[in-house]
Amino acid sequence: MKTWFLIFYFFCMNVMAAQKATINVTSADVYADESFDSDIIDSVNYGETYLISNKIYGAFYKIKLKSGKIGYIPDHEVTVNGKIFEEKPYREDVESVKPSLKKNSSKATMPEDEDDPDEDMSFMTNYRGVTAQLINYHEETMGTLQVDNLYAFGYKSIAMASIWEVFGSFQAPRYYAEKTGGSAEGFNIWGSSGFNTIIPVNSFSGFRYGGSLVAHLSRIKVSTPLKNYDLQDVTLGIILEGGYVVQFKKVAFDLSAKYFFDRNNYGALGVSLLF
After folding, report:
1. Which fold has domain 125-274?
2. Which residues of the chain register pLDDT less than 50?
């Protein structure tokens, strides 16, 4: 399973984004917000290629810099798939028209393209929801390496540049009861937080990959005819994760594969329903 996961992970890292843009001016400023009055956080140069959003934010695109930062770049300073976008009225220009519209007609409304700019790009912003995972759990105990499949459930949050989740399996691995001839109960809980990168494939889906620090808490109680055991453990490790996000309006499904570098290494497959 380790080899399969690594192949999947590096495949996600090398998938090319559908919405790429090339800088078409000598030097373009990148702003902290979708306004020319916001702070300039960086600049990009002619001929460089970057990942940008599918949606125009007023007069800007969202752009992901090579440093991982997210900023805004004027739409007329990038070329997307060989097409240079024509300049459109800036948001400030539209705002200046509002008073005259109100005077001429009480029914005057803003153009439809002034709707929430995140509506068509939510897979590139934030999702939160429930997750279910099948963990091929490995543990060195009772003198040898033990393996069992655990079902875990929890809460997951995915953003353009970050990811965190908490999930748990509230059952003892079966090998405790099988090896001791008694009964076992307990839980394993994981909590992780780290970085995440989303690579859009089209307007409703994208590959993602990332890594997280993970804390793992376990407690298992084993009862045998001769003695009872209370086993507790806390470990810190790393998770490498790849996935594919599919968006349906304001709902998304995330299919994921991850590999745990814990006290013992193991993998997991997951599916999440996010909002």
Report:
1. Porin (2.40.160)
2. 2, 5-18, 85-98, 100-123
